[in-house]
Design goal:
Length: 407
């Protein structure tokens, strides 16, 4: 059964679907109090850096807010941001570095699901919490057999973004019932996130009654999509669905339109970035992307966050995952407070602190700037809101917000 509720909206940015370093941290009680570090892992340079920087600075604003409000008495928080360049090997190295820093009590990130796969075991072995504001591959929380037998693999891993199981179906429903498209050409970038999302879209679109004309794959870093464009043109598809990031999809839609194929490209939250429109130019007009969360102008609590981000002159795109990064960071900070309060006002030390923070994060229940923050038995967010955005007059405009539940 599919349940879909929607609200038409014209909001600009979503609170959603991919740097600097400060290593001078101390740990332990002293006359000056305790300094605890929250790690951030994301692509802060190169591919996907637009959204990666949004994650870094979303976390930074949360830490600054907590410190200014003295949210945890006697504790000062700081950020240690590491650049994974969207590469799994780098993510694993960063996870090892963060675990090795005794002042680090938890990590926010990464952006990419493929990178997350390389990091989960490292954090689990150290009993240190990891909360991604953007990972959407279902297997990360529900195991590789999530479609038939859900099983949580890592109790230390959480996310504030909903999964592709919902995002892919939400997109398929909008393509078929909203746009009235009947024949889709489906492409992915062979990566964990992109391939998973594309498959879920294709399966959902077919179940609704649509036809998948053909499927194909590209490599990340590709620039020339001439042969793919020819295949799409000859297929007679009335929509192209792409599972992957904005780097390749912006070039695909440009080359597609230049070849006279005037069909929309529809993608996931990895495509939802201002860089997509800037790169594709007028060719992006009419293209669509789903993103987790609801438009920023529907959440009053996010107003101050957006104003702060802009006033600080932070780089990157806060609209993709900035608010989810803020809330992920606050979940860790709130957990520290809960652990301290439950321990007679004193922080446990070493591994005991990290382990207790994991348990406290699992019990999270507060109103964040992206909505209610709490996690189910798999570590998934209970916030299932999604939004479809369409490029209209050179900007992303929300056209449908709702929840999707396939069972």
């Amino acid at each position: 059964m599919v349940i879909l509720t929607s609200v038409l909206t014209t909001g600009a940015l979503t609170l959603t679907a991919c740097g600097s370093r400060d290593d001078s941290s101390k740990s332990g009680d002293s006359g000056g109090g305790t300094t605890l570090t929250i790690g951030v892992d994301a692509p802060l340079s190169g591919e996907n850096s637009t959204t990666g920087l949004g994650i870094q600075y979303g976390a930074q604003i949360a830490v600054d807010d907590a410190n200014s409000k003295k949210l945890v008495d006697g504790v000062t928080f700081k950020i240690k941001a590491l650049d994974d360049k969207a590469q799994p090997a780098n993510g694993q190295q960063n996870a090892t570095a963060l675990v090795g820093d005794k002042s680090v009590v938890g990590t926010v990130g990464p952006l990419n699901s493929g990178v997350a796969q390389s990091m989960q075991q490292v954090f689990a072995s150290a009993n240190m919490v990891e909360i991604s504001p953007s990972n959407t591959n279902p297997a990360l929380t529900q195991g590789k057999d999530w479609q038939t037998a859900k099983k949580r693999t890592y109790k230390t891993y959480f996310r504030t973004a909903t999964t592709d199981a919902l995002q892919g179906g939400f997109a398929a429903d909008y393509a078929y019932n909203g746009l009235k498209k009947k024949k889709a050409f489906v492409v992915d970038d062979k990566q964990t996130y992109g391939a998973g999302l594309a498959k879920i879209f294709a399966d959902s679109f077919t179940k609704l009654g649509g036809k998948v004309a053909q499927t194909d794959h590209v490599n990340t870093g590709d620039k020339d999509f001439g042969s793919l464009v020819t295949k799409i043109k000859n297929s007679g598809a009335d929509i192209l669905y792409y599972g992957g990031q904005y780097d390749e999809s912006a070039l695909i839609t440009k080359q597609l339109k230049d070849a006279g194929v005037k069909i929309p490209l529809f993608g996931g939250d990895g495509m939802y970035a201002t860089t997509y429109i800037e790169t594709a130019g007028k060719a992006s007009e009419g293209d669509l992307a789903t993103a987790v969360g609801v438009p920023v102008d529907t959440l009053p609590a996010a107003k101050t966050f957006v104003e702060t981000y802009k006033s600080k002159g932070y780089k990157g795109d806060y609209g993709a995952y900035g608010a989810y990064s803020y809330d992920a960071t606050m979940a860790i900070i709130n957990a520290v407070k809960a652990v301290k309060d439950a321990n007679g006002g004193k922080l446990p030390t070493g591994d005991d602190l990290r382990s207790k923070i994991v348990d406290a994060v699992q019990k999270s229940d507060f109103e964040g700037i992206s909505g209610k923050v709490s996690f189910d038995e798999y570590g998934d967010t209970t916030n299932k809101q999604l939004t479809v955005y369409q490029v209209t007059k050179g900007a992303w405009k929300a056209v449908k917000t709702g929840t999707y539940n396939a069972s």
